[in-house]
Amino acid sequence: MTSPHQPGAAPPPGCPAHAAAYQHASADTQAPVKLYGPDFAADPHRFYAELRQYGALAPVEIAPEVTAMLVTDYRAALELLHDDATWSKDSREWMTTVPADSLVMPMMMWRPNVFYADGPAHVRYRDVIVDSFKLVEPHELRARVHHAADTLIQRFGAHGEVDLIAEYARLIPLLMFNNLFGMPDSYSDRLIEAIAGMLDGTSPEEAKAANDAFTNYIMELVGSKKAERGPDLTSWFMDHPNALTDEELIHNIILTMGAGNEPLANLIGNALQRMLSDDRYYHTLSGGALTAHDAINEVLWNDPPLTNYSAHFPVRDVFFHGTWLRKGQLVMVSYAAANSQFDTTSLGSPGAGGGSHLAWAAGPHACPVKRHALLIATTAIERLTAWLSDIELAVDASALQWRNGAFHRALVALPARFTPITPDQAGATPWHNRDSSPSSSTRSEAISTERPPASAH
Fold first, then answer.
1. Which of 11, 30, 261, 389 would bridge 173 by S-S if both were Cys, CB 3.0 to 4.6 A apart?
2. How many CB atoms lie within 10 A of CB 42?
């Protein structure tokens, strides 16, 4: 007998309970919970606890007049993420059902890239990205992070204070991608200003100007590599045997930059927030019991940088874990809610929880370059805390604010203070250092996903 919790299972049409099951399990009969606004930003886990009362899936509103079903159950999430026969990533049909100017459209709009493709097209795009990143040697990547981190620390090191989000966590990925895709450092500020405008623009005109600036940057990047190849991701994308068209090339570069930038910035920022707020890590960051690796692992379990995403659409009407879903209906996965089903109260306890976190998603659409992201985040944090070993929060941890939005878990700002460093002081500084590391290690150490760490909730 088929279990009602198996994908696609449904009461037989002749069953007397069939009509009632459809009526009471349909997404249309439940009021959606808003995943945006100051209350959700301040304490999303309270909302996830409420959503789990609906069962494995819950109705949510991710923006005004835009609803979805959110998977909050760990096993249901794994089933969905691994089942590419029942679920599609193609959002074009769904796009006709929501306003074209919706705030979530940039995250959900179909494009010819690895995020929104199914089957052979997805494999073709993914192979280009995976094979190209394999050509980035770990020691070279670490050296690039050192250079990017030192460049930023030089900008604020003499001030004795810094917003670690705006002046460090958000900029590290942009400097890295500018470099990895083959543009000179002189282009970094253009990329930073364009992305900042798209994230923080206060008017449609500012957002459009920022988008135009980003488009111009991408076109110059592609044009320069068509004229002359180099040892960089753009050239490797171009020369891959899968032969991307110009349109596919541009969209997969944009996707790689976008998908790498926001989550990586949030991962760095959220990990620094934990390190600066939790006495288990330090009174001075270089002297605590726990490390940057522990902070990153805690974030991936408890405050993943992308909390709700993995947009999928059923290819047919389906009865999934007790809920009827219509063909083409938007279904998303809550990595944060699924992760929080585990016991995350015992750091280092073997077998606690018994699963792997979903911060990188899972299945065929799992993050293809998580090792690179972990190396960048870990090295960026260790580089900062090595040069600024007495850095501390400049405000009470309870005063920190989180950005609004259904998709991410990200701080508005992370103000910190430290003893200023200057180019003329004795000893090694970022101004004098080029290749050697400060005293703390910047090794690339694996981040375990096999047991949850301690929770700050």
1. 261
2. 12
DSSP collapsed to 3 states, 275-310: HHHCCCCCCCHHHCCCCHHHHHHHHHHHCCCECEEE
CB atoms within 10 A of CB 398: 6
Residue 254 CB coordination number (10 Å): 15
**Which has the minimum average pLDDT: 13-22, 105-114, 365-374?**
13-22
- Hey, which residues does 411 pair with through a beta bridge? 402
397, 281 in Cβ contact below 8 A? no
Backbone angles phi, psi at 150, to 5 degrees: -65, -40
**59-69 pLDDT tens trace:** 999 988 899 99
Q: Is 420 left (phi over 0), alpha (psi -120 to 50) or beta?
A: beta
N residues, the chain:
457
∠ Cα 69 73 76 (to 5°): 80
Q: What is the pLDDT of residues 133-178, one digit of tens each?
A: 999 999 999 999 999 999 999 999 999 999 999 999 999 999 999 9
pLDDT tens-digit series, residues 198-208:
665 556 677 67
What does the alpha-carbon distance between residue 2 and residue 300 come to, in Å, rounded to a whole number? Answer: 35
Structure tokens, 374: 């972990």
Number of alpha helices (DSSP H) and beta strands (DSSP E) in the chain: 16, 11
N-terminal to C-terminal alpha carbon distance within the chain: 41
Report how far residue 113's alpha carbon sits from residue 147's, in angstroms, rounded to the nearest whole number: 30
Residues forming beta bridges with residue 415, ordered by sequence position: 163
114, 127 contact by CB (below 8 A): no
